[in-house]
Amino acid sequence: MVKNTQVIFNKIPTNYVPVAGEHMVIHESEFDLDAPLSDGQFMTKQLALSIDSYMRGRMRDPSIPSYVSAFEIGKPLLCGTMSSVVKSSNPLFKEGDLVYSSGGRFEQYSLVDGNEAKDYKIRNESKETGLPPSYSLGILGMPGFTAYVGMMKFGHPKKDETLYVSAAASSVGQLAGQLGKRFGMYVVGSAGSDKKMTYLKEIGFDDAFNYKTDDISTNLDKQCPKGIDVYFDNVGGKTLEAAIAHCNHFSRIVACGMISQYSENPETPHNLMELIKRRVQLTGYIVSDHADMEDEFRKNITQWLLAGEINYKESVADGIEKAPEALIDVLQGKNLGKQIVKVADL
Amino acid sequence: MVKNTQVIFNKIPTNYVPVAGEHMVIHESEFDLDAPLSDGQFMTKQLALSIDSYMRGRMRDPSIPSYVSAFEIGKPLLCGTMSSVVKSSNPLFKEGDLVYSSGGRFEQYSLVDGNEAKDYKIRNESKETGLPPSYSLGILGMPGFTAYVGMMKFGHPKKDETLYVSAAASSVGQLAGQLGKRFGMYVVGSAGSDKKMTYLKEIGFDDAFNYKTDDISTNLDKQCPKGIDVYFDNVGGKTLEAAIAHCNHFSRIVACGMISQYSENPETPHNLMELIKRRVQLTGYIVSDHADMEDEFRKNITQWLLAGEINYKESVADGIEKAPEALIDVLQGKNLGKQIVKVADL
Ligand SMILES: NC(=O)c1ccc[n+]([C@@H]2O[C@H](COP(=O)([O-])OP(=O)(O)OC[C@H]3O[C@@H](n4cnc5c(N)ncnc54)[C@H](OP(=O)(O)O)[C@@H]3O)[C@@H](O)[C@H]2O)c1
Ligand SMILES: NC(=O)c1ccc[n+]([C@@H]2O[C@H](COP(=O)([O-])OP(=O)(O)OC[C@H]3O[C@@H](n4cnc5c(N)ncnc54)[C@H](OP(=O)(O)O)[C@@H]3O)[C@@H](O)[C@H]2O)c1
């Protein structure tokens, strides 16, 4: 028997930001590493957990429909996990394999049933590349892929055009902006702290502003003097409205996320007529529809990371019991780059 | 000397609907058909005027920028005109030619200067086809072309999909819906009177509702049971919100017009997050950018009209002095199909 700390969903929050110890609680259970496995089962030891803002959307009454299922009260939180297989009677997974799950359980050890195995993907690349396994939760995982699909498929980036990225220091945003730079775009980002602004300039953004202390529209006037050709929207609401008001003719809005819309009394743009007058194309997309681009994505980003042509930052919370605070940090915008919880070393 | 009745822009309206005799006045002037012409000049006799809702947007303070220039106080209203050339010393225009101008003057006769000639296009087709010259203001003109570009370039229509068209009995809407039918779509329209509903069904719409007497969302539930795959938006606001709430995954919104946004205190959609969740692509466009499709458009629509495969209705106001009331009708949605003012017979 080993100790198996779990992060349990305990209660549906009413405010946007949940409370650690009330809505999410730490539970100490035990795990039997010597238990016999039936056919198809395997055991994982979690290495790193991904903390994503959309987890808040899963903390809801399950009768409210959405594109992701609601969390179950009394069960562990679910999100992206990187794990190593510690024991297996599934022919597709060997002991020592590194595996990614988009809906892994927030616990130190998991027993994975045969019918759950399809949600696990082998991600052994880091053994060869030397890049940290946790990268498969960020720049080489779902958030990175989200930035890649958005820019490559829907952004139609062109040299010397202007790209504006909101929530630019987020896991998705930091790559979206850097991809713009690779195409020779002029790239401006907004984020919620001066530390994030500094970071954005360090990784190659041409300019950045703090939307919490500075007026968005005034700053777009100043920082995007030639107007916006691609707006990579992570925020929605008033930020989207200000961006639309700075869009050039034939510009594109990559509608990736609208994180401002999760909060209480969200605001909404009042200038949608401008989408017509300015001939704007706005495309909403969900990354999981674009699996056909995944190999190309991983190959390119790995290469650019190894060549030092792409920068990437993680905020690391150390220990699984820090997961609730890490989620609260993300919902309050305290993370700088991809928020990870480190559970164990490889 | 002949009498030359003009429709003069007299005052900027403050309410959405202008007042005849106050903001637009009828002015009787004279026109010298025997005056000598300098090189490049020609004279036109107007046959029909197009009444378009966007004229209201031109009745503004000229210091407010927009995609179309403001009307000048004391000068005739401008909009689409079909005319015949009555005298010419411009080698490109012969006596007897039928000519279209997108910004023709609302007066019985015009003297066109050489530098204005570029705004006139020869439209002699109706002499061969026998279709009325006024069709060049509607189904074979800018509104028809707007429907064609929207559906063909941005709608990506597919057999058995559902198309919803708002302001469906408008000049643009009636063709957009019929194009959907040609692709084998299930087509639903909304309009502001029971008479318009009847008309929509007569020209092949599968279903229709009156948005003034019936709740939009309830009707979309009923009439689009498989959801919406293409929304051809002429209205914006709450109609757009209801349509988004019925959009299928990977649906397209053709953002053609947002006529509800011209009124006082326009409403705006509050569910833009759904554009992401439902993977919707919304494209704003302006017809004049797509001149490359114009020949194909005119050839196809002429053929379909002559074969009786496309229906088309005009509301005709008889006499140029009826132009102010005709514009008021359009702004109040009283027109059934393309609103025309008949000025003279060919
Ligand atoms: N379409 C898809 O398939 C897909 C997939 C994954 C993610 N996404 C979207 O991509 C976006 C970024 O996700 P991520 O995982 O990269 O984010 P993340 O790393 O978790 O960071 C989110 C950041 O958003 C900012 N933020 C939070 N609330 C905000 C508000 N009300 N207004 C403005 N900014 C706010 C915060 O930074 P500040 O300091 O700047 O406020 C926060 O650090 C999200 O909108 C997410 O929904 C979409
Ligand atoms: N993108 C482009 O390049 C382009 C070019 C031309 C036209 N357009 C747009 O296409 C649309 C149709 O133009 P059109 O010339 O075909 O129109 P139209 O024939 O002049 O008819 C306009 C119709 O819109 C409806 N309407 C008016 N106010 C409304 C409101 N507040 N809410 C809902 N419906 C309202 C009325 O019918 P009801 O009885 O149904 O209310 C009216 O008959 C307009 O939005 C226009 O701006 C776009």
Distance between the termini of chain A: 20 Å
Portion in strands of chain A: 25-35%
How many helices of chain A in DSSP terms?
Answer: 10
What small molecules does the structure contain?
NADP nicotinamide-adenine-dinucleotide phosphate
Number of domains of chain A: 2
The assembly state of the depicted protein chains is homodimer
Shape of chain A: globular
Q: Give me the Rg of chain A, rounded.
A: 21 Å
Keywords (chains A, B): Oxidoreductase
Organism (chains A, B): Phascolomyces articulosus
GO molecular function (chains A, B): oxidoreductase activity, acting on the CH-CH group of donors, NAD or NADP as acceptor
Domain Oxidoreductase N-terminal (chains A, B): 35-116
Notes on the structure:
The structure is a homodimer of 346-residue chains. With 346 residues, chain A is α/β, with parallel strands linked by helices. Chain A has two domains: 166 residues, Medium-chain alcohol dehydrogenases, catalytic domain (Quinone Oxidoreductase, Chain A, domain 1, Alpha-Beta Complex); 147 residues, Rossmann fold (3-Layer(aba) Sandwich). Chain A has ten helices and 15 strands. In chain A, the strands form three sheets. In chain A, strands 3, 4, 5, 6, 7, 14 and 15 form a seven-stranded mixed β-sheet that branches. In chain A, strands 10-9-8-11-12-13 form a six-stranded parallel β-sheet, sandwiched between helices. In chain A, α4 links the parallel β8 and β9. The longest helix of chain A has 14 residues. The radius of gyration of chain A is 21 Å and the shape is globular. Chain A starts with a strand and ends with a strand. The mean pLDDT of chain A is 96. At the A-B interface, α8 and β13 of A face α8 and β13 of B. β13 of chain A pairs antiparallel with β13 of chain B. The structure holds NADP nicotinamide-adenine-dinucleotide phosphate (NAP) (2 copies). The site of one NADP nicotinamide-adenine-dinucleotide phosphate has 30 residues of chain B, from α3, α4 and β15. Chains A, B: Pfam families: ADH_N_2 (PF16884), ADH_zinc_N (PF00107). Chains A, B: Keywords: Oxidoreductase. Chains A, B: This is Enoyl reductase (ER) domain-containing protein.
